[in-house]
Amino acid sequence: MKSILNKLDKAFENKVRLGIMSALMVNDHLDFNALKDLLGVTDGNLASHLKSLEKSGYTEFRKDFLGRKPNTKYMVTKKGEVAFKQHIAAIEQLLK
After folding, report:
1. Cβ contact 11:83 at 8 Å
2. Is the per-residue pLDDT at 30 higher than 80?
3. For the CA atoms of the chain, what is the radius of gyration?
4. Are strands 30-31 and 69-76 parallel, antiparallel or unpaired?
5. 32, 87 contact by CB (below 8 A)
6. Are 33 and 39 in contact, with CB atoms under 8 Å apart?
């Protein structure tokens, strides 16, 4: 059991970060407002968790413009995809 617990990634222990990664794993990208609406969190809360995932190298962003309005899109990096799949696999092993 200890070896399974060691496979859990602390970056995903927070429910907001788990939600962000889950949403981004099934979508090519999502913008800030879509993530905020989906997760029901405040701007500041979402921004801090996105920054944490970005520092880990698990997410990245791209800034575009929709007309004259700035639009920031977030996506999972390859490193994030691998880490998240390992984290979910560890949870599945733990539940068996």
Report:
1. yes
2. yes
3. 14
4. antiparallel
5. no
6. no
